[in-house]
Amino acid sequence: MRHEPKWGRYSRGSTLMAGKIEVMIADQNPVVRSGLEALVQRDGRFSVCGIHASGESLIEALKVKPVEIAIVGWTLPDMTGGAVLTRLKQEKWRTRVVIYTGERSGDVLRQAIKGGAWGFVSKTEEPQVLLEAVVSVARGRLSLPYVDIDLLNHDPLEGLTARERELLAALANGWTNLQIAARTGISRNTVKYHLKNLYDKLGVSNRAMAVALHVSVNRSDHH
Q: Ranges for the Response regulatory domain (predicted)?
């Protein structure tokens, strides 16, 4: 007999047999939010415990009431789905995230998987695909699309220029923009320009995320 996953205070009441799967939803698009709420609520297997327009709103709600599953859009007004995954990991919450996104980039899928997403569903899929993914994740199974392993192993740093690689190494060493400018002989504005290009190429929004990606790639290179 297969055991359902235990969820802290939900260990008795929220298995698929004993009760409904509690879900929160976060997406920047109000039409998507209301559509998802209606879709999930209409299915007898789920209970919608909150609808959120931003990552911070979702995180604040989870502090008050942890739920089993969060359906999260990748692009939120205040952060990416990757940043939501990072916050959940920092807080050591048991909520499992299903990323629901229109982003078709392999980099987004890779970041989601590395960030600890349990599920990843494209908005181009039939709604039933999302519902079944949520059920699978609640049962303790990953629900990820088929991906080319070579794509996931693709080095996101390989498209960087020599200057951008130099800057990324400087960031990883904790250098400030002022220190980078002084040590490379370029102006602070030029440093900012190169950093913006660097962040765009890596698909990140700040230096902490860039450094995290740099560290993860280097770590995987050594395994």
A: 22-138
**CA diameter of the chain:** 66
Q: What is the enclosing helix (H) or strand (E) of 97?
A: strand 96-101
User: DSSP string spanning 26-94?
Assistant: E-S-HHHHHHHHHHHHHSTTEEEEEEESSHHHHHHHHHHS--SEEEE-SB-SS-BHHHHHHHHHHHT--
Cα angle vertex 138, ends 137, 139, to 5°?
Answer: 85
The pLDDT assigned to 153 comes to 55
**Mean pLDDT in the chain?**
81
Given this model, what pLDDT does residue 8 score? Answer: 34
Q: Judge if pTM exceeds 0.85.
A: no
d(Cα 179, Cα 36) in Å, to the nearest integer?
A: 47
Which DSSP string do the residues of 118-177 spell out, in sequence order? SEEEETTS-HHHHHHHHHHHHTT--B-----HHHHHS-TTTT--HHHHHHHHHHHTT--H
Segment of 33-37, 122-126, 165-169, 217-221 carrying the highest mean pLDDT: 33-37
pLDDT in tens, 84-130: 999 998 888 889 999 999 876 677 888 888 888 999 998 888 989 99
Contact (CB, 8 A) for 101 and 81: yes
d(CA 210, CA 160): 12
Domains of the chain as residue ranges with CATH: 21-153 (3.40.50.2300), 162-219 (1.10.10.10)
